[in-house]
Design brief:
The chain is mostly helical. It has one domain. It has helices at about 1-20, 25-70, 75-115. Helix 2 runs antiparallel to helix 3 (about 75-115). The radius of gyration is 22 Å and the shape is rod-shaped. The two termini are about 25 Å apart.
Amino acid sequence: MKEYMQATMNKVRGYIDSEMKSAPEERTRRVLGEFETKIAFFQHERFIHLVVTFFFALFLLFEIFCLFILPADCLLMSAVLVLLFFCLTVAYVFHYYFLENSVQKMYHMRDEIVRFLDGEDVAV
């Protein structure tokens, strides 16, 4: 997903920087429409990862709680689950951070295209 998002942003950034000013308005509108569709897909991906991140964090908290209430013979298994959920939660937080920041960058790129189509200055 990271490569796909980065490739999409690079493609649109390249269009904005080099082709948009000389391209016909209809082509710019098609690029904008396709880009808005991809933004919607990426927003969905971001939401799904938010839910997954939330549940892994919830599982982690539950397992930490279990460390304190389970009998001593179950502590090793619970500690392993705490470690597993901690690693997965950290990985998902970093991935979600990337998704969130990338989608926000896409919002700014979309705004540049819309401002250009409206005849405004595209400098941010």
